[in-house]
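ping. complex inputs:
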Amino acid sequence: MIRENTRKIKVGNITIGGSNHVVIQSMCNIKTAKVSQVVKQILQMEKEGLELIRVSVLDFNDAKAIKKIKERIHIPLVADIHYDYRLAIMAIESGADKIRLNPGNLKDENQITQVIDACKKHQVPIRIGVNSGSIDPILVNENGGRVDVDIMLKSLDKYIKIFENHKFYDLVLALKSSDPILTLNAYKKASEKYSYPLHIGVTESSFKDIGLIRSCVGLAPLLLEGIGNTIRISLSDPPIEEVRACKRLLNELNLYDNYYTLISCPMCGRSNANIMKLSRKISQYLESKKIKITVAVMGCVVNGLGEGKHADIGFAFNNPTICTIFVKGQVIGTCHPDQVIENLDKYLNRII
Ligand code: SF4
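pong. complex structure:
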């Protein structure tokens, strides 16, 4: 089911699903019981645009810490539970806004029922997070040892039935794999079958250089087809990079407001400036602005003006000491290369 037609699920002070925008998620990489450090990390990510944070709950101390963390953050918190249903109940009682269960390692129906009861009592939704690496071995064996789309869907379907049999429908579904094509196909099939909102992500996608590409391969086609209500780009990098990556991907797909688009040339023999350095400087400046704007920076005027004409404002280097400034394709003047940020700032001050 496409994004707009999915069920709406309330998670703390936000709603996932229906016509709501795609919600950006990440996960803390610090032990949850280390409250101050976790809060600091979450607050940094909040500033960057994070809308939903997940934390691991490995023991009683982690579950108890949720209450203290929640007092100091402003976005809903998801408790990530594996193996022990009692931790799910503790996390819910401690104030978790949503819990994530893994069908591969929490299977006892009686235990799941107790979690469902706690969720009903506290109006907490559940994310069923199927992970290709932890599918029930019995199901994998029945499938000839193969982990494929069908087995991921089978695992999900079996689990959903437990919740639906208990008339619990506040579900968000996820079917992640580190294989982007498997992930893509699994979500496509799930979207045809279920009306629950989908949390999309390619899991364990490695560090930025590799993970961004792998995640885009799996997630961009889904988002373009209107699939996916929340997103995480999992990286072996600081979690704040995951938030930036989500914003950038959503922005490129016209699914995010208040973010910049930077057009910068790769440089060639005609280049009159170090665009590699300057484009990073401009990017750093724009990150803090939280505004929808397209900025171009080009090494020469031969192609620069033409290729950057869609930009709100652009800079193209005539020579190492003179840079042409153009606004929506029209030349408005020149400046010294050292004054690019200053002129960009002047322009933003005029339009904000
Ligand atoms: S804009 Fe100019 S310098 Fe940059 S790649 Fe194109 S031709 Fe080369």
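The mean pLDDT is 95.
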